[in-house]
Amino acid sequence: MPRIYLLSEHTACRIAAGEVIERPVSIVKELVENSLDAGANIINIAITGGGIEAIEVVDNGCGISQEDTPLAFQRHATSKIKSIADLNCINTLGFRGEALPSIAAVARLSIKTRVPENNMGYHMVIKGGQVLRKEPVGCPVGTLINVQDIFYNTPARRKHLKSKSTEGGLIADMVYKMALIRPQTRFIFSHNGREIFRSPGSGNTLDVLASVYDVRTANMMLAINNQEQDIKVEGYISKPELSRSTRQQITVAVNGRVVRSRSINNALIEAYRGKLTAARYPVAVLLIWLPPDKIDVNVHPAKMEVKLSNEEHLQLLITDAVRRALRETGLIPHPVKMPATSEPFVLNLPSPANQHKVSNKGQAGAGNGNSLKERVAASYVPACDQQAPAGSSSSGNKDELGATVTLPSKADDHHSDQLAEVAESYKENPAFPDLRIVGQLLNAYILAQAADGLFIIDQHAAHERVLFEKFFKQLSVPNPQVQYLLKPVNINLRLHEQELLKEYAVELRAVGFVFEDFGQGSLLLRGIPAEFPPGQSEQLLADVAESIMEQGKISSAKTKHALASLLACKAAIKAGERLSTEAMEALVARLAGAGEPYTCPHGRPTVVSFTRRELDVMFKRT
């Protein structure tokens, strides 16, 4: 057995830093929480290069005395608890005494701080846990902390950071959440020298909602309030017509602390059951107050997760408060104004009198010897394409489902096998059965027959698979099919979302988004993917920005998959939409030529079948 050694303080600090400081947003969170604990009502956060290059937090709190400043950088040194008994009644955001030494262990840190009773402040410079300078300094009351060269001595962690825009977006989102739960504090956030956000500090959460999002969003929020004994739930929730594609816009705070809680999120989502479509989530700010002895905040190094007493009772209070707010207000959505496009979005088509056969073996219909590619191409009518500006004539192809289609050619040799397979998505697929369209069931399923039995195709899942492969390919082999808007749309998003979209403008152009910086914190949208109804433009871009921020660099296969899945799900025909026989035939023909035709990108089946023998057994014909 190897001998047991006591780790050095330097090594122990590096290990602790790895637990507390995961990425730049962790540093911002810890510093801002210290500022709030110090009683600050104005907090200025400035970052450079997404927080990877530099972070500076300045507050007007009570400051730290000259005697205590060096102690603040010792592990487990804190002014917030004194004994183990205090852990049962935590009233501050910080208490572990690990934040400052952990940050100083993996970066170059400079602090200037002054308490009101002293005329002079104190200055320290620490790099990698080693004190380089300490001296008196003139400075205002409060604390200024500047952090640079983050993770300079932990290259593995620095290597796995996401792009600067993504890291900056995570910090912006944390600042927004802090501002929403602390409306009485003014937060000022700057990135690369440009002010991104300033909260009013008025104490009114609706004012902060308007500054984080916009006035329209704030007007669509409903106040909630529920209290039972010593537990209180309050905040704001969105009407069902305002939703997002991820849970990112659900802000939860327990006793003034931003936390992640699956149980609280589930209670909120349960209250919206039947009011939101699948995979859509509300915008919400939930503020939960309960006695300090009913919450354990010491279960996670970064204090992002907490353990609550009587969690089931709290869930019931949340669900009841949200349902009551939704029940007491009118939920009829306002009509969406559809901007003009070069051509209308077409879905419903005349139904032919006769049934058609879809074949992948060179027979696309009775008496027709065309190949599958020729049959699919022949089933489309002209529409706008990537070369058609607003108001001009079109030269592309458009199928009965309203999608502009260019049959992909063989991928270049340097592309991966996966992309090559997607590029061949309209080739003949010998494994897919020869089908004859029978009809549509419940406006959701396509019924088809083959020599061996009955096939039922989920129209949404099938169209989603076809579009997913198209978008996934376009993200690496750009072949944009754009629906240009006759009247460009001014898109107002949060500034960090706009920065993300601008960073990935080339990649988004590859799938059909055409936009430009319009100044004053807005984007001018000129074109969208050909498959989309124009009225979804603003919501779609917001979902795309959230997907990029959640998944990471768009060049990664994981993010390409997530983005292509999102776009495909948005653009695909939905259950409940009536299709003509020709439209059903075109969709099944495209599915037959897909690289992976049997599941949608989320793994759900696109088609199920019953053999003739299985049907005979069910009807007891054997």
From TrEMBL:
Keywords annotated in UniProt: DNA damage, DNA repair
SUPFAM superfamilies: ATPase domain of HSP90 chaperone/DNA topoisomerase II/histidine kinase, DNA mismatch repair protein MutL, Ribosomal protein S5 domain 2-like
Residue ranges of domain DNA mismatch repair protein S5 in the record: 209-327
The keyword DNA damage is assigned to this record: yes
GO cellular component labels: mismatch repair complex
CDD domains hit by this protein: HATPase_MutL-MLH-PMS-like, MutL_Trans
Any one GO BP annotation for this protein: mismatch repair
Region (Disordered): 343-369
Domain MutL C-terminal dimerisation: 437-579
Signal peptide boundaries: none
Compositionally biased tracts (Polar residues): 351-362
A Pfam family reported for this protein in Swiss-Prot or TrEMBL: DNA_mis_repair
Similarity field: Belongs to the DNA mismatch repair MutL/HexB family.
Annotated HAMAP family: DNA_mis_repair (MF_00149)
UniProt function note: This protein is involved in the repair of mismatches in DNA. It is required for dam-dependent methyl-directed DNA mismatch repair. May act as a 'molecular matchmaker', a protein that promotes the formation of a stable complex between two or more DNA-binding proteins in an ATP-dependent manner without itself being part of a final effector complex.
Protein's recorded name: DNA mismatch repair protein MutL
